[in-house]
Design a protein that fits this description.
Blueprint (H helix, E strand, L loop, with lengths): L6 E4 L2 E4 H55 L5 H17 L4 H12 L19 H11 L12 H19 L2 H10 L1 H9 L7 H17 L3
Antiparallel strand pairs: 1-2
Helix pairs in contact: 1-2, 1-3, 2-5, 3-8, 4-5, 5-6, 6-7
């Protein structure tokens, strides 16, 4: 018997327990080091991915800001910044192209924030108050009591949510945009009788969208 303890015979060799323990310890240390390297690599990759996401978000917001600044009428700097943030957030929330939201705003109100139609539609996205209330309640959108639909953030939030609902409802972006303008029930009547709803509004939104894409998409 060895003074250091029992010996282990392995493949014709005799290894004492302390020596075998040392080998195991080295092995586990190597495994732990490899695991640490993999963790560091993944952490580094996650940091890079997060940075890329932040850069893409910044580029989108700058693009939105550029468009708002060009088309806005009488907005303060704070209103422009707030509006850009809201448009970005809502487009991301509903997976809609922010240029589409901007195109609807331009087609509806030409960025006149206090615009009110003969039918009573209000604000940038020309939303009817009753419709806006229903949409806000459904999506949990906070309603500023004093400002109502003249609040830029509220107007864009309910308008975007409503547009998203209509696109889902009709399972078609063209019909959804058309229904946003002429109303859901009127659009259904056209479809019920096999008639094509008026395309004038949709064509206008499409024309503005294509113009924005050609000018701002690669910025």
């Amino acid at each position: 018997m060895s003074l250091l303890g029992k010996k282990i015979r392995t493949s014709g060799m005799i290894i004492s327990r302390p020596v075998s323990f040392t080998f195991l310890l080295i092995y586990f240390m190597q495994v732990a080091f490899i695991v640490w390297l993999i963790w560091q690599y993944n952490k580094h990759e996650n940091v890079i991915t997060e940075q890329k996401k932040k850069i893409e978000e910044l580029e989108q917001k700058v693009k939105i800001l550029d468009i708002i600044e060009e088309y806005q009428i009488g907005f303060t700097k704070d209103e422009i910044t707030t509006l850009a943030d809201v448009i970005y957030e809502e487009s991301d929330k509903f997976s809609l192209d922010p240029l589409l939201i901007l195109s609807v705003i331009i087609a509806e109100s030409s960025f006149r924030k206090h615009q009110v139609s003969e039918m009573g539609a209000e604000g940038l996205m020309q939303v009817m108050p009753a419709t806006a209330r229903t949409v806000a309640e459904k999506w949990g959108i906070q309603w500023p009591q004093r400002e109502g639909l003249s609040n830029l953030g509220l107007n864009v939030r309910v308008g975007t949510a409503y547009l998203f609902e209509l696109i889902l409802e009709f399972k078609d972006i063209k019909r959804g945009i058309t229904a946003y303008n002429i109303g859901e029930s009127v659009t259904r009547e056209y479809l019920h009788f096999g008639a094509a709803p008026p395309a004038r509004y949709y064509n206008r939104v499409k024309r503005v969208y294509q113009e924005l894409r050609s000018r701002f998409a690669d910025k």
